[in-house]
Amino acid sequence: ETFTETDKEQILRDNLDHTLFSWSKQAGLNPISAERAEGVYLWDRDGKRYIDFSSQLMNVNIGHGNQKVTEAVAAQMRELSYVYPGMITKARGDLGKRLAEITAPNLTKAFFTLGGAEAIENAIKLARIYTGRHKIVSLYQSFHGASYGAISVGGDPRKFAVDSQAMPGTVHVENPYFYRCPWYSSTPEECAERAAAAMERIIGYENPGSVAAIVLEGESGTSGCIKYPPGYWQRVREICDKHGILLIADEVMSGFGRTGKWFGSDHHGVKVDLMCMAKGITAGYLPLGAVMVDDAIAHYFDERPLPLGLTYSAHPVSCAAAAAVLDIYEEENMLQNVQELGHYLDARVCDLMGQHPSIGDWRNTGLFGCLELVKNRDTKEPMAPWNATAEQMAVMNQVAAKIRELGMYTFVRWNLIFIAPPLNITKDELDQGLDIISQALRIADQHVN
Ligand code: PLP
């Protein structure tokens, strides 16, 4: 469809006048007006092309416009668009079985939701009911979704707006963030040990018998890809086992190949009791989330009613989309591609660090990467601090504007630039994107002191 300038203006006005945009002041917004997208690219209504370097919200893992998904969705809709979640459908059973196959053997059953926050809400409910305890321990530098329970469990400042009404029973501890380790530590392993010891102390003060679960992102996402050093997950599992606490992995962003394995927590070889997923499960083509449940928890509800439910749980069309997306991950060998390109990306960014003094730290696992910009490498003063004000964002906003001007969409937050493109990106496309980031970093370099 072609649009006149008047049509385009109308589309813009309808959006801005009659819809609310997430996490932003509504005045002065200038969002991209998206028209179409294919592969790693998207085009706006003026025909400008953007390379998508964060897979939108780290979810469009198979790239845009894959017609195999469209066909699977259309076929499912022609046959059966919807039945209530109390009925059997082929799409639901197929997907449950496949999720059980790609997760660890102890995770046997899925409860389907519409997205990540709902997966977390339901995992919290399950953990509380199963243990008979109420507290949930999580990390300050984490995000688990925007609904009341999920945002309370996250430590991200996005929760400040609802702090006074937050879900009771949340306990936060500091991350094993080696680049800025809150404890003296000379190695990542030492930082991990100190962080785990602090977590255990705090659980002691909180009464271990009141703690239902510890929640960790499978690999840290929007807080800045704060990698878990070796040993951390193992220590957290030990704490759980010692005190009868469940371990919940939030794989909403880190799942489905993003890190080169199916799930971020797969890198640590540790058993989890509940696993939350969303985003990459359908690669954003339709809304879907899931909580995968340990066999013992699943059996707990053999003789007790499961107190969970959603009108759209196990929506057949979303389940069919997910099955098609899982096929595509496998057919296109995406896990392998992510592992290879993850190393390539790491090497390329390490080169860029030689040219750009504003890059303080760079962290990636596979195609889940983050540049952390600083004003000074020795003091590590961030280019913009955690929860930066508009004023403190002045330089980063210029960097972000340059990135957009040069034809890239990616997630820029505080002093962080995310590099998390679709998992089937090619080396050439990755290079194109890195060239844009490199040009934009020149602005940040001028503010290094
Ligand atoms: N958990 C993590 C780790 C996330 O990154 C997000 C979203 O960014 C969520 C949960 C929430 O998912 P949703 O936005 O689908 O509710």
TrEMBL record:
Belongs to the class-III pyridoxal-phosphate-dependent aminotransferase family. InterPro entries: Aminotrans_3 (IPR005814), Aminotrans_3_PPA_site (IPR049704), PyrdxlP-dep_Trfase (IPR015424), PyrdxlP-dep_Trfase_major (IPR015421), PyrdxlP-dep_Trfase_small (IPR015422). Its cofactor is pyridoxal 5'-phosphate. The keyword S-adenosyl-L-methionine does not apply. GO terms for molecular function: pyridoxal phosphate binding; transaminase activity. GO terms for cellular component: cytosol. Keywords: Aminotransferase, Pyridoxal phosphate, Transferase. SUPFAM superfamilies: PLP-dependent transferases. Pfam families: Aminotran_3. The keyword Transferase applies. This is Aspartate aminotransferase family protein.
